[in-house]
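Table S2 (text version). Query chain:
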Amino acid sequence: MKGMKLNLAAIAVLLGTGAAFATSAKPANVKWRLLSTGAYQQVTGAYTCTGTTNLCTISYPAGQDPNIDNSNPVSQEAGTFH
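Corresponding structure-token output:
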């Protein structure tokens, strides 16, 4: 009986540890805007996107610099950046 309690306690610790790692915070996405020069600039502060014809902002995973690698954006927002 004592051995069974120890086994159950060990399983509970392993499951708890696994759940803690599975729910840890993921890095946020970062918004960028494409300048007329073709370079990307990180968006900081307040902005608005008006209209629907242009590409306003592009989100990439944190740590990815689109000036080096602009593949696989997470999302895009249409409009003109202001």
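Notes on Table S2: The chain has a mean pLDDT of 83. Strands lie at 29-34, 40-42, 49-61, 75-81.
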